[in-house]
Write a structure and sequence with these properties.
This protein has two domains: 229 residues, Malonyl-Coenzyme A Acyl Carrier Protein, domain 2, CATH 3.40.366; 60 residues, Malonyl-CoA ACP transacylase, ACP-binding (Alpha-Beta Plaits), CATH 3.30.70.250. The chain contains twelve helices and ten strands. α11 links the parallel β9 and β10. The protein starts with a strand and ends with a helix. InterPro entries: Ac_transferase_dom_sf, Acyl_transferase_dom, Acyl_Trfase/lysoPLipase, Mal-CoA-ACP_Trans/PKS_FabD, Malonyl_transacylase_ACP-bd. One of its GO terms (biological process) is fatty acid biosynthetic process.
Amino acid sequence: MSVAILLSGQGGQHPGMFDLTADHPDAQAVFSAATPLLGGTDPRDLARSGGDALHANRAGQILCCTAALAAWRALGFSGRAIVAGYSIGDLAAWGVAGRIAEADILSLAARRAEAMDAASGVGFGLAGIRGLTLDPLDALAERHDCHLAIRNAPDSFVVGGRRDALDALCREATAAGAQRAILLPVHTPSHTPLLAEASDAFRTALATLTLRRPPAGAPRLVSGLDGTTIFRPEDGLDKLARQISHTIDWAACLEACREYGADRVLELGPGHALATMARTALPDARVHALEEFRSISGVADWLAQP
């Protein structure tokens, strides 16, 4: 058995996101490390309070990493696995793979968000487009001075730019046959050249890290930028910085999981968007999101099934 561990990006935060891990003894250190980064508020309390605070860029990135690391700690999985993370989940994957200490992952999540906020202008965002292939969408984005941010599948993309330009792009995409073309509730043009300064700032932060030697049996680490396996840490860290301002190829990450032979897929983090995409990309695998279970023991039992 081989398991693909997928780590969520932002967007799915909700009041019950820590329901399965909140009281697990092995997850307490992760919650404790996140609390001072959230102004002294426990991430579990912040989540339960709901509202807009969950989706602020800095808090959202910290919460997503907290969710992934807490769930991984609680599971205590030690089988054959590969791990890939979507956007901020790419950073959390380095913690799951044992390459960066959990406390450092959470601190870096805060610094990443701060760098992105500093580089972002007002009036920018992202749009999700499904039902167009790359070439026509690329031409459409160029015409509206927008940029391809994420490739989720051959006909599913995220585009970034000014919100007024994205609105016009969505209307034109719909007229061109797109099944879905909507502005996303995001005000940061992530994974576009508009955030080049944020990549530079985050690269500087990463240069101060002390990397860890991954323990025996740690999951294989895949770059969330292009789906390649990380063998040389220095190359992987550069990609971790670059993905802030470059198009990320999530479809390639899912292909890497398929080539690894993953017959089960588990999404850790808020929401189930990655699990939904994985069901299409890995049709022969059994796929679940953590939140589809009632308990951590239920997840462990599922993973232990022959």
